[in-house]
Amino acid sequence: MNKNIYFVTPDMNVHSRGILNIYKNVINLNKLGYKAYVVHFNTNFKMIQWYKFGKDMPFLKFHYLDKLFVINEQGQFIKANREFGENDIWIIPEGFPALFPIFKQTFKFTCKMYMYAQGWSYILPSLTSVFGGQIPHLSQIGVEGVITVSDCVKQYIIDLFNFPEELIFMLPNYIDTSIFNSDLGVEKVEDVIEDESGNLDIVEVEKPAQKKNKICFMPRRGEESVYQTTIALIDKKLKGAWELKPLINMTQEQIAKELKQSKIFMHYTSGDGFAMPPLEAVMTSNVVVGNAGLGSLEYLQDALWVNPDDCRDPYAYCEAIEEAIKMISDLDYSEYKETLEELKERYSEINYLKALDEIFKKLVV
What we know:
alpha/beta; seven-stranded parallel sheet; five-stranded parallel sheet; 12 helices; 21% strand
């Protein structure tokens, strides 16, 4: 295949499932025989460092906007350093709508351009910021189609822009259940045994691991004042009986380990199109306390979930956490395994890869 697929990607090295999704799209498209590239903005950005790609590294190809184009100090695109023809495809995140008219109108590109809408909350503010408070139709700025990750975001785009449904392509997220699962493994604990002489001795033995009274949360996700106040309040209410564990600068494996040990995951964001951290918590048998936003309801409605009455009210979060603790006291995790198997099937890598291939077979024509 001679067509190049360019995935524009923010220069961010914080933990971002959205950016990781772009990297994995590029890896898997190259494995499927397409020519795909991650396109960061600045050459000085040296790919995300918080995820280890291992044997997938040969399939992770990069370009940089400041090499593909001449860009002045004001961020204006002056000229292209190579030709982009109708055989090329640009996939541009919903937060960068300015790139569509730059490519389509300024440079008169004949290549196809698609919006990659993993979320919904950036779409309207980004458009009004770029286009002087106006909300242009997506087709007016050069968007030929939209790739999205949830039915809710798809419906949002249809409702807001009257965008043709047949030009919206669903690329589902998937979860790595080899890491995020309900298998707690074993743990080493001290036990008292009696030897043949009747003497007592303390030995270290392995026993099936048990969940701990632990509440996990991701501090960077959501309104700072809400989660900080909630953490402070719930810590006083629980009087140290529960550990409050922030998930910061961790690998996927480290996050999974913490979630397997915890019983509750607090989720604060509301702007996700499909929030992965709560799904990871669900798959590790946590009760999720937080709002579904726009998109996550498709799995949270089947999960162990408590929705605060007011997601901007830290007291409402505290009440929801106390409700979750009561829920856990009556919970039989074995009865929840059927639900986990259904979610595992729904968000499988096989379904994702099938959709990825089907979408780009349509786009690369």
